[in-house]
C-alpha cells in the first residue's frame, strides 16, 4: 500500500511521523510502497494451510520474493520456486500478496514505484535499505546465492533496472527466429550436397520451409509440457498421483536418499497414511539447504510407495470410504524386535474394523500369545500406532473415516 493511501484511510490530523514509526513495525518498504512483514502473516508455531510447511520456512521464502521485488518489477514463478524449493501453492500465495500475473510476463509488482515517498522521506528509505541488506545477507546464506546473480553485470543500479516480461518474450522470439533461419540454411545446404553426390542433374528448388516440407526446428513445446506434467505429478507439493511421466523420473528404483527418509520416518511414526507421508516429505524438502536433495525433487506417488515397501513396511487394508490417498495406510512391519509380532496382530485387528475398543485389542493379544501383555506394552503399542477418539482407538490418520 502507498503511504499516501494509508494516511487517507486515517482520521485527519494524525501525525504522519507517528504513523511512519508504527508502520515500520509491521511492514517493509518495497519500491516506495509498504508490504506487510512475513512474520505478521505467518506467526510462529503456525504452518501453511496448503502444505503444512512451518511458518519459519514460509517467512524465508516470502522474504526472498519481497527482496527480489526491491530489485526488479517482474518475477517468474518457476525461477522463484527453483530457488526457495517450496510447494507451488505457497509460492503463488506469496506472489498474490504483492503482485499480479501478466500474460507471458510472469508476476509484476502490484503497485507503481512511489518515488515521491522515497524522495520525501530519505531517512526512512535509508533505514529500510539497511534492513533489506540484513535480510539479503541471511537469504544468501539460506538459499546459497549472490545478489549479483540477479543483477546484469556492468549494468545500471538496481533501482533503474526494469526488464519487463514482454521484453524477455520478444528477445526469446528473436533468438528462436535466428535459430530457425540457421536450421533452414543448414537443411538446404545438406539437401544440395546430397543431390550433388548422387550425380543427379536436378536443380534443387529452394522453397521456404514454412509450408511444412522438410525438417523443422525442434519443437520444444511438448518437451516443456512433459517436464511440467512431470513436476505437477511429483510429490513436493504437486498433485497428480497418476502422472505416468513422473513415474520413473529417477529410475524404476527409489533412490537411497528417498529410502533412507522413508525408513527413518516409519521407525519414528510406525503408522502413516500416504497423504501424511507426503506432507512430511514436503517438510523435509523445504528444510534442505539450497543445492541439496536433487534426487528427491521429482518423486511420484508410485515411487514413494515402492520406497515404503522396500523399508520393511506393508499396507494395512483398513475398511473406509475415504479418498484414495487416505485409504492407503502403511505400517512398520519388521524391525527385528519381538514387539513386531504385537504390531502385526494390531494391524490384523484393524483390517476388519477401522475403530476398536482397547479391551478388544487386549483380548486378541492374550488369545494369540497365551498371556496378558503388560499394561506398559499395550500403552506403547497404542501410542506408536493409534490415536484415541470418543473412547475408541483408530490407526493413525484414519479418524476421519467415521
Quick structural gist:
The protein is 51% helix and 10% strand.
Instruction: Sketch the topology as an H/E string, one letter per element.
Output: HHEEHHEHHEEHHHHHEHHEHEHEHHEE
Mean pLDDT, as a whole number?
77
Please count the beta strands (DSSP E, at least 2 residues each): 11
Percent of sequence in beta strands: 5-15%
C-alpha termini separation: 46 Å
Query: What kind of sheet is the major sheet?
Result: 3 strands, antiparallel
Rg, Å, rounded: 29 Å
Helix content: 40-55%
Apparent shape: flat
Strand order of the largest sheet: 3-5-4
Could you list the spans in which at least 5 consecutive residues all have pLDDT below 50?
152-162, 200-251
**What structural category do the secondary elements indicate?**
mainly alpha
Domain count: the total is 2
Count helical runs.
Answer: 17
Task: Characterise this structure.
With 402 residues, the protein is mainly alpha-helical. It has two domains: 158 residues, no CATH class; 148 residues, no CATH class. The chain contains 17 helices and eleven strands. A hairpin with a 2-residue loop joins strand 1 and strand 2. The relative contact order is 0.07. It has a three-stranded antiparallel sheet with strand order 3-5-4. Strands 6-8-7 form a three-stranded antiparallel sheet, sandwiched between helices.
What distinguishing features does this structure have?
2 domains, 51% helix, three-stranded antiparallel sheet, single chain, 402 residues, mainly alpha
